[in-house]
Amino acid sequence: MLIILCSLSWAQDSEMVEQDHSATFARFSNSVAYYGLAMDLQKFGLSIYLVQALFGIIDIPAMLVATTTMIYVGRRATVASFLILAGLMVIANMFVPEDMQTLRTAQAALGKGCLASSFICVYLFTGELYPTEIRQMGMGFTSVNARLGGLAAPLVTTLGEISPVLPPLGFGATSILAGLVVLCFLTETRNVPLVETIAAMERR
């Protein structure tokens, strides 16, 4: 509650509120989908050790692609596109027959790679959104919410006891919604000087 009150005290104008809430939701949703997908390895019908290794290896090219696109395309487009693509991959995986294990696993690995890319990008992006005088506080607040997303992920996974389509639908929809929020409400920071003060951000 104290963190929330501190967050609201920064928000002197609608832009600050919009940026803060959108960044917080993006990091929360990214963590929900990222950890949720990583925790649900047994559904692919292959060795969980093999799937875990594949999910780990996919993070390496994901980091390289994320770094390149952040530099040449921009932060907002990179985060939004990877989140939306990951969500589409996860939801599309629901319609692949269970006997096509290789395709299901490959599709999930690509989704995991997209989530890894957005995970890396959104961390840097968030830091650039806040003015320097409250940057550490803003990063701390969004990081707490990202950890809450990690805590919520296994709870979403347990919805599979009700219906097997609920976990992937939840992870996919959350990821797509977060991508749309980033695209619509966050400000592009590529090649833009960092804002130093809250007052300067209000004047922008």
The gyration radius over C-alpha positions equals 18 Å
Q: Secondary-structure element sequence?
A: HHHHHHHHH
Number of strands: 0
Tell me the structural class.
mainly alpha
Low-confidence stretches: 1-8
Q: What's the CATH H-level superfamily name?
A: MFS general substrate transporter like domains
Strand content: under 5%
In DSSP terms (H or I, runs of 4 or more residues), the helix count works out at 9
For the sheet with most strands, the description reads: none
The CATH class designation is Mainly Alpha
Oligomeric category? single chain
By CATH, the architecture is named: Up-down Bundle
- What name does CATH use for the topology? Growth Hormone, Chain: A
Q: What percentage of residues falls in helices of 4 or more residues?
A: over 70%
Quick check: average pLDDT?
Answer: 87
How many domains? The number is 1
